[in-house]
Every structure is written in structure tokens, then in C-alpha cells.
Amino acid sequence: MIQNKQWRQIMLHISICDDEPSQLALLEALVSEWAKENGQEITLELCRNAEQFLFLLEERKERRQSVDVLLLDIEMPGMDGVELARRLREEGDGLQLLFVTGIAERAVEGYDVDAVSYLIKPVKRERLFFCLDRAVARIGREEPFILLETAGATERVRLRDICFLESASHDTLVHCVGRGEAVRCLKGIAWVERQLAQQSAAFYQIHRTCVVGLAHVERITRKEVTMEGGVRLPIARGKWEGLNRAYLAWYRVGRAQDEEEG
């Protein structure tokens, strides 16, 4: 367990979304036990499916409230957990996600939505407590971002939202998830890439006019890479092997960190 924890002194809003009543009851009991053990005041709400959670979230937003942590089952009828998580991220919701799944192979799908971690059913008390500790530690922590000079303004963009960069003459088009139009930065792509590289190894230049965010890569072939949303980008000659190495390294680091902390 994480030692010397400094818990938030405000109410923590936690939701659990699972279609199995027995799992809801188990997770509710364990989360309540975790809160009591750590002296953390919480509200706890239970949902049986993704649609019910979205309705709950909308109600909370109308009251100017949020959900801090969501324990989310992956295998649910209708909209499954991964689809719900992607929708939340596309809409800019930064809540902390903990995936719950009975199929270990599906846990990897949590990396492209910035999940805190994943829990394999049957959920173990110690593992859940550790993941909740980790989620709380991330709440309120400053996410890496970049400041982009645009026409008449300076825009703050989170690194995890950047899908790919595209050169546009002397400017750079920064394509982000959940945004219809790209941000037009009044700096060249080389400058933007240097700023990103100073903070993260999650970006790779596949062409002199294009840089991709590895977290949003869906498919790589020798000639092109398919990004989240279906956009296909050509890979320059000689870049395919480097892209594969960079992607595998990025993926392995994420897995290794999760296993160490788990």
C-alpha cells in the first residue's frame, strides 16, 4: 500500500458501474471499507449500465458536481465499458477510471483512455485499495500540457489529448481527440515536436510533416498508420521500424509501471 498518504480534505465522489448485482454489492462494500479505513469522506453511487451512468453524470453536471473516480466494468450489454470510457475522454472528462474485467486480455484497452489501472475479477481487497490510493493521488495533479500560440490567443492543450500534428506551411495543425477542428499553432512543426519531446516519449515523427501521438495509434502497416477516429497517415520510407519500436517501448513502459505499482 502507499505509505504516508495525504488524503483530500473534501468529499470524494465515487461511482461504480457494473451490470452484475453481486459485483456491485462487493465493490460497494470494499470501497466503503477503504474510505472508512482512510478517514476519507465519500459519496457512492451505483449504476447497472453505461446509459444509467451517463444520465447520472449529466444530473451531477447540472448541479455543478462531478464524479472523481469511476469503477467501470468492461463487459456490459449495450455500450460496454471501453466505449463509455472513450466517450468520456472525447468529451473532456478527466475523472479517474478503474477498469474491472473478467477477461485479462481486455485490460490493455484501458491504456488509450488513461485508465488508472485495471482489476481482474474476482476483485481482491488489497489490489482495489491500492488502485483507489493511486486514483486519489492523481486527482488534482497537474496534467502535462503545452501552450500553443494561435491567432490572437494562447491555448493550453493537454498532451494526452493530442492525436497528431500536421505541418501547414509555417504553422502546425494540432489535431486533438474530442475536437472538431484542429488547433492552428503559429509555430512550425519542429518547434512543437521539441516542446512535446521535453515532456513525453509518447510522440513519434512518421514524416517530416507529421507527428503522431502513440496513445492514439490504432493500426500500423509498412505504408501508413491509422489513428483513433480512422484517419490514415502515410509513413515515410525508413520510418516504419522506428515507429514500431517507439510504439512497443511506449506500451511496455505503461505495462511495466502498472505491474510495479500493482
What would your notes on this structure say?
The protein has 262 residues and is of the alpha/beta class. 33% of the residues lie in helices and 29% in strands. The chain contains 6 helices and 15 strands. It has helices at 21-38, 50-62, 81-90, 125-138, 189-197, 240-261; strands at 12-17, 42-47, 69-73, 96-101, 117-120, 145-150, 153-158, 162-168, 171-176, 183-185, 203-207, 210-213, 217-220, 224-227, 232-234. Strands 2-1-3-4-5 form a 5-stranded parallel beta sheet. Helix 3 links the parallel strand 3 and strand 4. It is globular and about 55 Å long. The mean pLDDT is 86.
Features:
6 helices; 262 residues; 5-stranded parallel beta sheet; 5-stranded antiparallel beta sheet; alpha/beta
Give the class from helix and strand content and strand pairing: alpha/beta
Task: Specify the biggest β-sheet.
Answer: 5 strands, parallel
Q: Outline the low-pLDDT stretches.
A: none
Overall body shape: globular
- N-C termini distance: 9 Å
Overall helicity: 25-40%
- What would the average pLDDT be, to the nearest integer? 86
CA-based gyration radius = 20 Å
Give the helix tally: 6
Helix and strand pattern: EHEHEHEEHEEEEEHEEEEEH
What kind of assembly state do the chains in view correspond to? single chain
How many strands?
15
Strand content: 25-35%
Largest beta sheet: strand ordering: 2-1-3-4-5
